């Protein structure tokens, strides 16, 4: 494990922001942290980074405890804060050089790393621009470049795609995956569950300072439901067909909405799916399209906490 | 640290508002003061030679020295000079507007002499009264330099010559600065004080509990103290350069004496102490209100700086002197007033003990700001983010 958080407790006066939280993060993965506002995500990350002192528990990164004097550990960590944290007065190149210079003293080496970071985030043609002249998406990319230029092993990314256009978002997500390919471990928080599903290898859902679920996205989805949902769009269907489907064993519910049929049935029962298709075929129903409605992380979150994740972020 | 310093020089100097507040705004201020409150050229366009008299002392050496001085080519350009036998006679002439003013000298109990000047303004339009006063005083100052100093050197019991305008207490000044100067010195101090505002940005940007850039610095392998010192030194440098440009403009373009040529070293000490204290004041405000937004901190700091500027006489003539006389405590806790007066002393006084005393008081304020800032910082030590 590259990061191990054990029994972490952080209190602000009477309020417990993090409540006996455990996390184990493997090397070389993208680890997603999901949770509504005030769930304790930021507090957890700040404790990991040593910016906050915890009341109880232990945090080990690369087997060592984080402290302001642990320079060896610090050089392996990169941070990309949610708010863009660059200097408006410096150019793209100078900004990256400034933050990279906080780690790398050798001028030649730094120059090479800065050039690489600029190329990595696709800002080569903008390197003499100041942030004021860049679009929101490009500034976000600059924000990322400032955090990764010194080539850290572990990167903390806090909502890096907030308020960016879809094109820049895709570019950023591709970049995150590329960083993973290069061997970095990424701790990723985001409002966008689609993103987390798309890029994260493992996810921890945090609510009220506790981890309420963790695992791969598939494991999380499996955790909450034993039901499959089948949706069939037809060119016309009679009620008789609906009744026949209802009579199939393991069918939980059948709903008809104009020409669309929504069927819930017990999971992992392949024979049930075959029987449904057989009824459809026997009755000569013409099918427009047919698909399984897959549960999302939002569904998982809703089931586990009773809250809509996005509404609470 | 040098890299941080270089980078911060770019950051601070490329902020247009920084340069506006510490350089261009004071330049606009002093230019307007100079234009409205009179230069020699402005006055000469409205007035004839100043008619003045000297009430003879019957001390031959003094009388002859003063007469010689007023008959010098330099002063002849400004004055029409006559000797008077009696103070009362000269006073009557002033009241009848026959002359613009007169000098007389009185011997004090301690054996020293005081040089008085009485002016009458009625020969000028009201709008030019102050300008005339300035002109008159300037002339009198020349008398002091050319006449009284040599006398003081030669005559053991003339140790201190004092000069004043009519209606003002004699203890205030040995020489009286011009009206333009009175407003110019606080404008210089304004530039010094507002360097603190730039420092506020630097301090925030380097503090992990106030900015994300600070968080990045905190998490880096670079020593935070080095980064912090680099940023503050850069702020100081930019403030100092702006101050020097402003001073050169005032001294060489506006031709208002601030001691740049005559007392360069002293002026630099005043500037350096002033800049350090303004940065410390800013640090104290930032540390006292760490959870406030940048805008709120700026508002608090700006309010304090503007109040200091106002109380130092930047907006009302002689306010600083009145405060010094009637509410001395308020005068001595205001670095702006102390620094402004120090520059005034550099330009118009020989005795610089007041400058050192004022600088000491300003430095003491700086120590207080520093202690408060450190205590406030320690209070928040465990909650960095």
What are the key terms here?
heterodimer; A: 313 residues; 6-stranded mixed beta sheet; 4-stranded antiparallel beta sheet; B: 385 residues; alpha/beta; D-Maltodextrin-Binding Protein, domain 2; 4-stranded mixed beta sheet; 16 helices; elongated
Give structural notes.
The complex is a heterodimer of chains A (313) and B (385). Chain A is α/β, with parallel strands linked by helices and 313 residues long. The mean pLDDT of chain A is 86. The longest helix of chain A has 16 residues, at 166-181. Helix content of chain A is 36%, strand content 28%. In chain A, the strands form three sheets. A six-stranded mixed sheet of chain A has the order 5-6-7-3-8-9, sandwiched between helices. Chain A has a four-stranded antiparallel sheet with strand order 11-12-10-13, covered by helices on one side. Chain A has a three-stranded antiparallel sheet with strand order 2-1-4, with helices on one face. Chain A contains twelve helices and 13 strands. Chain A is elongated, with a radius of gyration of 24 Å. Chain A has helices at 41-48, 71-74, 92-100, 107-120, 136-148, 166-181, 193-199, 217-224, 239-246, 270-282, 297-305, 309-312; strands at 3-12, 15-25, 30-34, 56-61, 77-80, 154-158, 185-189, 202-207, 210-215, 227-234, 251-257, 260-266, 287-293. In chain A, α8 crosses α11 (297-305). By secondary structure, chain B is of the alpha/beta class. Chain B has two domains: 2-37 and 178-380, no CATH class; 50-159, 3-Layer(aba) Sandwich (D-Maltodextrin-Binding Protein, domain 2). Chain B contains 16 helices and four strands. Chain B has helices spanning 2-13, 16-37, 40-44, 60-70, 73-76, 87-95, 129-154, 179-206, 212-219, 224-253, 264-288, 294-314, 319-326, 328-332, 335-348, 353-379, and strands at 50-55, 79-84, 101-107, 113-119. A four-stranded mixed sheet of chain B has the order 2-1-3-4, with helices on both faces. The longest helix of chain B has 30 residues, at 224-253. The model of chain B is unreliable at 39-47, 121-136 and 155-176 (pLDDT under 50). At the A-B interface, α3 of A face α1 and α9 of B.
């Amino acid at each position: 494990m590259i990061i191990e958080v054990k029994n972490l407790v952080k209190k602000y006066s009477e309020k417990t922001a993090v409540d006996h939280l455990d996390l184990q993060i493997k090397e070389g993965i993208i680890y997603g942290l999901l949770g509504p506002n005030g769930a304790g995500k930021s507090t957890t990350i700040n404790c990991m980074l040593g910016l906050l002192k915890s009341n109880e528990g232990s945090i080990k990164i690369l087997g060592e405890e984080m402290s302001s004097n642990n320079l060896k550990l610090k050089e392996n960590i990169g941070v990309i804060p949610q708010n863009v944290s660059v200097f408006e007065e410096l150019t793209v190149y100078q900004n990256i050089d400034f933050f990279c210079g906080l780690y790398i003293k050798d001028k030649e080496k730094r120059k090479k790393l800065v050039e690489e970071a600029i190329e990595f985030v696709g800002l080569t043609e903008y390197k003499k621009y100041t942030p004021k002249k860049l679009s929101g998406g490009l500034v976000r990319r600059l924000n990322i470049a400032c955090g990764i230029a010194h080539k850290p092993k572990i990167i903390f990314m806090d909502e890096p795609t907030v308020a960016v256009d879809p094109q820049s978002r895709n570019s950023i997500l591709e970049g995150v995956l590329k960083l993973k390919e290069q061997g970095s471990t990424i701790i990723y928080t985001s409002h966008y569950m689609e993103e987390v599903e798309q890029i994260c290898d493992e996810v921890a859902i945090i609510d009220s300072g506790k981890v309420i679920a963790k695992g791969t996205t598939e494991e999380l989805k499996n955790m909450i439901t034993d039901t499959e949902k089948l949706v069939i769009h037809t060119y016309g269907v009679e009620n008789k067909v609906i009744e026949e489907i209802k009579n199939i064993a393991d069918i939980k519910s059948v709903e008809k909405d104009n020409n669309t049929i929504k069927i819930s049935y017990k999971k992992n029962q392949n024979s049930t799916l075959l029987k449904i298709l057989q009824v459809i075929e026997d009755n000569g129903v013409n099918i427009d399209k047919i698909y399984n409605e897959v549960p999302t992380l939002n569904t998982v979150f809703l089931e586990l906490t009773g809250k809509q994740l996005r509404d609470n972020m | 640290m040098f890299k941080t310093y270089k980078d911060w020089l770019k950051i601070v100097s490329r902020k247009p508002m920084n340069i506006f507040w510490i350089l261009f705004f004071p330049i606009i201020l002093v230019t307007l003061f100079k234009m409205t409150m009179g230069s020699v050229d402005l006055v000469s366009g409205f007035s004839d030679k100043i008619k003045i008299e000297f009430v003879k002392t019957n001390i031959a050496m003094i009388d002859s020295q003063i007469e010689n001085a007023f008959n010098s080519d330099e002063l002849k350009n400004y004055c029409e000079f006559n000797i008077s036998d009696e103070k009362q006679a000269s006073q009557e002439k002033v009241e009848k507007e026959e002359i613009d003013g007169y000098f007389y000298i009185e011997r004090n109990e301690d054996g020293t002499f005081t040089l008085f000047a009485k002016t009458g303004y009625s020969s000028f339009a009201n709008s030019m009264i102050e300008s005339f006063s300035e002109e008159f005083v300037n002339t009198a100052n020349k008398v002091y330099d050319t006449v009284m100093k040599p006398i003081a050197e030669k005559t053991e019991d003339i140790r201190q010559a004092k000069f004043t305008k009519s209606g003002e207490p004699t203890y205030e000044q040995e020489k009286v600065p011009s009206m333009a100067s009175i407003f110019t010195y606080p404008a210089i101090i304004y530039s010094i004080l507002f360097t603190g505002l730039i420092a506020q940005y630097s301090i925030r940007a380097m503090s992990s509990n106030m900015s994300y850039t600070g968080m990045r610095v905190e998490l880096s392998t670079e020593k935070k103290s080095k980064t912090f010192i680099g940023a503050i030194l850069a702020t100081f440098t930019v403030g100092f350069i702006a101050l020097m440009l402003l001073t050169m403009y005032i001294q060489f373009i506006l031709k208002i004496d601030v001691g740049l040529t005559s007392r360069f070293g002293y002026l630099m000490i005043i500037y350096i102490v002033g800049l350090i204290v303004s940065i410390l004041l800013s640090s104290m405000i930032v540390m006292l209100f760490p959870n406030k937004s940048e805008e709120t901190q700026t508002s608090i700091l700006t309010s304090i700086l503007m109040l200091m500027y106002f109380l130092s006489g930047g907006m009302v003539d002689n306010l600083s002197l009145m405060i010094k006389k009637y509410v001395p405590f308020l005068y001595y806790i205001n670095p702006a007033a102390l620094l402004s007066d120090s520059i005034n002393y550099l330009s118009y006084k020989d005795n610089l003990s007041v400058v050192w005393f004022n600088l000491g008081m300003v430095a003491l304020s700086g120590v207080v700001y520093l202690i408060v800032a450190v205590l406030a910082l320690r209070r928040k030590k465990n909650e960095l983010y």
